[in-house]
Amino acid sequence: MYTLEMAKAFKTIKAPKGFGVVVYDNENFITVQVNPEKLLNLTDKQTQDIVDYINNVKQTFEKLGATVFVVRDTLDKK
Fold it and tell me: What is the largest CA-CA distance in the chain?
């Protein structure tokens, strides 16, 4: 499912500073995994930049024919 064209397109998307996602090829779909720890203590602007980035990644893969799931783990209560 994850093609060379998708890899090239993904590399052109600039992530917000200190943030990134992990992309998994699951043959029939792509999973974009977000680290929930990176979503804590952010300003509204930082949060919006991250949401825009994730949406851009998802839409880019979908335009290239992929089914995309965005996931994150739960935060551990400490």
Answer: 42
